[in-house]
Design goal:
It is a single chain. Helices cover 75% and strands 1% of the residues. With 276 residues, it is an all-alpha fold. It folds into two domains: 89 residues; 179 residues. It has a two-stranded antiparallel sheet with strand order 1-2. Helix 13 packs across helix 14. The longest helix is centred in the C-terminal third of the chain and has 27 residues. It is globular, with a radius of gyration of 21 Å.
């Protein structure tokens, strides 16, 4: 088959193949410490990987101008999914120090999200406010512990300090998951909307921090952390807001929402696969 005519006749499939190659090569380069230069706070390699992932997500959703068989559609979707599951830019080629700094960089956003939780009770009717207060009572303490452990790990990224950070992030993650389940007890639609919005802001950041911590943890340590997570992410999936999560991540990293959507999807899938 003439490769030129094949590209012309199947542009979407060809574009997907090119993007898969870009993301794959960028992932290998990142793992080997090859940057090809810097762009802002990132590198050219991570930027190429992020853009490739984002465009793959767009291609997977775009309508096709000409009818194609269901088999072709399935194959294209499968290849796009495989590419989306490749290591993402902010999760590869990272040292303990860079991960620790990344965790600490989330501190202002985490503190702001917890402050939003603290102020949300005033928007609820008394009965709902009581449920919400009980569900989120541990947020302030868990947030303080996690922030302090992250700063301690940045200053001294040793195994013992990492163990404390692991315990802190799992404790907070479980606290958040429990609060999402408690939100189901609030039946007033307006109250529930306020509650879920506030908790999801915290949940997004805690999930991101969990991913960062596990990226510098051994398989045995991740397995131990997962075993301590009794309320699994699958149990609270109904109450999660992917749109808000992508917006929070995009704002924090200064990237397109499409890139953040891919990152959020992979982080959640990786966490579930790890047993969280």
């Amino acid at each position: 088959m003439n490769p030129i005519s094949n590209i012309w006749n199947h542009p979407k499939t060809s574009a997907t193949g090119v993007l898969i190659a870009v993301v794959t090569i960028a992932g290998v380069f990142s793992q080997q410490g090859i940057t090809l230069g810097h762009v802002g706070n990132g590198t050219i390699v991570t930027l190429a990987s992020a853009l490739g992932t984002a465009f793959l997500g767009l291609l997977a959703r775009d309508p096709v101008s000409q009818p194609i068989s269901s088999g072709s559609t399935a194959k294209l979707g499968a290849w796009a999914l495989i590419a989306l599951l490749l290591p993402l830019p902010f999760m590869v080629g990272c040292s303990e120090t860079s991960v620790a700094q990344n965790i600490v960089n989330w501190t202002p956003a985490l503190e702001s999200a917890v402050a939003t939780v603290d102020s949300t009770g005033a928007l609820l009717v008394p009965a709902d406010a009581a449920i919400f207060a009980a569900a989120t009572a541990g947020f302030d303490a868990a947030s303080s512990v996690l922030v302090n452990e992250a700063k301690a790990y940045l200053a001294n990224p040793t195994a013992s300090v990492l163990a404390q950070l692991q315990a802190a992030v799992v404790t907070f993650q479980q606290n958040v998951n429990a609060s999402l389940l408690s939100a189901a007890k609030i039946t007033n639609p307006t109250s529930q909307a306020h509650v879920l919005n506030a908790i999801n802001g915290v949940a997004t950041i805690v999930t991101a921090l969990l991913a960062l911590v596990t990226s510098v943890s051994s398989k045995a340590e991740v397995a131990r952390m997962a075993s301590e997570s009794t309320i699994k992410l699958a149990e609270v999936r109904t109450y999660q807001d992917e749109g808000k999560a992508a917006a929070v991540v995009a704002a924090h990293y200064g990237e397109p929402v499409e890139v953040a959507q891919a990152q959020v999807a992979q982080v959640e899938l990786s966490a579930v696969q790890a047993g969280f």
